[in-house]
Amino acid sequence: MIKTILNNKTLALLLTFGLLNACTTNDEPVVEPEPEPEESRWITVAAAKMGENPGDGNGGTLIYSISSEDAKNPNFSIDPFNNGFIAPSNRTARLQSSEDGKTIFNISYAGDTGGNYTKYTVEGGQTFTPTGSPVSIAPYVGSAPRWIKLFDGDQTGAAVYVSNEHEINDNGTPDDASDDTYVRTDAKIGVVTLDLVNSAIKEFQEHSVPLTAQEEANGYYISRIDMPTLNAAGNKLYIGARLSKVDPATAESDGNGEILGSKTIILDYPSLLNPTVITSTVGHGNTNGYRSINAFEYNGSVYQANQSDPEGSHILKINANNEYDNSYDFNLDDALGIEGAYVLAWRPAANGKAVVAYRHNGSADGVAGAQGFFALVDLNTKTAQKIDAIPYDPDFYLFQYQGFVVDGNEIYLTQAAVGQNGNIYVVNTESGEVTKGAQLVNIAGSHFIGVF
Hints:
This protein has 452 residues and is mostly beta strands. It has helices at residues 2-27, 68-71, 80-83, 138-141, 213-217, 332-336; strands at residues 42-48, 61-67, 77-78, 85-87, 94-97, 103-107, 116-124, 127-136, 146-149, 156-169, 181-195, 200-208, 220-230, 236-247, 252-253, 261-268, 276-284, 295-298, 301-305, 314-318, 330-331, 342-348, 353-359, 373-378, 383-386, 405-407, 410-415, 422-428, 434-440, 447-451. A hairpin with a 5-residue loop joins strand 13 and strand 14.
């Protein structure tokens, strides 16, 4: 009996001591751990030097890298034209960067070195150290290839070309051309995939890609392709296409025909076999873009800009079933309240909000071409708003614009009219806030073509 009482008292004392000790411990000041410093990212600025005419970019490409902190600093100044690294290319280089900004990939465009693939480790400033072995894709897609880096973890690049040949029926009279009859135009495409890690060719295939019999009888054919993009499943490659037309009566170019629904070529991936063509009923015009990536995977679908649409550029949607979603109607004319919107380049962040470079019918006629603008668009709500915090000039030329940097929800871009100084700007796609960053020093007739 006594033993039991003593044990109960002992337990009570121990419990009381534990509670007091716990209270004492909780009353001590809590030391919060130091926040992890944000990891800086290299921002590589690309500058296109004038050749013979202002804004032509044919004098070569120079690149210069700075930290993301310096890129956001309006007191920091860079002069790529006088201090930059010359990216090998006879004309404007076709550049891509790794997702972390630590590697630059380049395929030179035209000239004796056209089609040569090289990559560089970004070291800061004008220091870009060659890494890996160079390889030429010219034997597969020519010396002026249209290529892009696929979004597969910096593993693969894809380059494409198309060649055309009119098929003519001589009706049994080879010496009398007046009796010849136009049949169709054959579009032969070539697609090569490139191992970016090991600098080696992965796969190459060629195909004749027909349109419908009625479209071909009316003189339509695929005349240019570009901007390969992987679907979310990674088993299909989408290739943007431009259509041209001849007059079937004469086989001469016909620019007055109906503009057909936007089209995309689809290949099995990685085999590059089994080409098919899909057609949008929402957008009309081309989907090949120009110098910048024109289609991106987001939330299981691929979103693609079109150009030369009579109703203004659209952002089109290709669903996981590899067909256009014709219920998704995102017209930039309507969203921006303008006419003749033409997407020049664009890039979404992971939240589905994107920066779009565009021109429209109201653009001023600048020294190199139509004036460009930037807008912030939302793929989910199908809304768009011009970014007024960025200054614009009649000579702000964006037709050759190539690169945006996406870092989280922030998108970096360059702003500078042809032959004038400008700045890097950083757009927070979530809040819409715009930060004016580093100064860009320009030279006469030249311009900036983006960041990587």
